[in-house]
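Lab notes, practical 5.
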Amino acid sequence: MKIIGNIIWLVFGGIFIAIEYFISSILLCLTIIGIPFGLQTLKLGILALWPFGSQIVSKTEAHGCLSVIMNILWFFVGGVWIFLSHIGFGILFCITILGIPFGLQHFKLAGLALTPFGHDVK
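Output from the prediction step:
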């Protein structure tokens, strides 16, 4: 069932979301300062490419001060807009019964988009 959900996700827009994340990841990694943020957008792109069956897990060793500072920077630089767009798409998809699984995947992406540092995709 996860494979079918992921294929439908990709056909109806998931591939475009993943490509956008991958392009922004490459552009962010061009600068030395942007590399940590580029790695986080790469993480979002991987989750956007194959969301069904993937889980977000918290890294216990990464809950230090640096992770909190980077999440605050991420929030103000663009994370809030990514978060709000996924929340909006999640609400739109949850209006219909068939769209609920896809809306839940957008809510999962929104959670990672808000605080990507200190979390990993499994």
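Observations recorded by the TA: DSSP finds four helices and two strands in the chain. The CA atoms of residues 85 and 110 lie 8 Å apart.
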